[in-house]
Amino acid sequence: SRVIERMVEVAAATGWLWDPPRMVEAVNARESLHSTALDVGVALLHPRRPQSSILAQPFLAMGRTYQGIPFGGGGGRLTDIFFLILSTDDRGHLQTLARLSRCLGDVQFIEALRMAEDAEAAHGAIEAYEQAQFGA
What we know:
By secondary structure, this protein is of the alpha+beta class. 48% of the residues lie in helices and 17% in strands. It is built from five helices and three strands.
């Protein structure tokens, strides 16, 4: 999908993702098995298996649309926040999914992401939430 292509482009701009077409293919394959869209309007995009051979390091990319779009299941709800989880090993991948899922259980956190005016504000909202919840 176009959303996946754009998210992979954002990730590739870091220089840490070496084969964007392969990542697009891997994430599309995962989405075709079962959508990662949640009923809170957030999708947790990721390949089925960590892609260590095309990543310099694990990282997370976030994108937001100004209006929700139909994406996968999402319980019929439009999706407007997309995270792309780029892991180099299973353990790190599961830890990231678990931690992100905990954050997304908090409606105030999701609203803070939606209200962020730019990437810097979104990053700040994530850091503030992490500090408050995990002391990290």
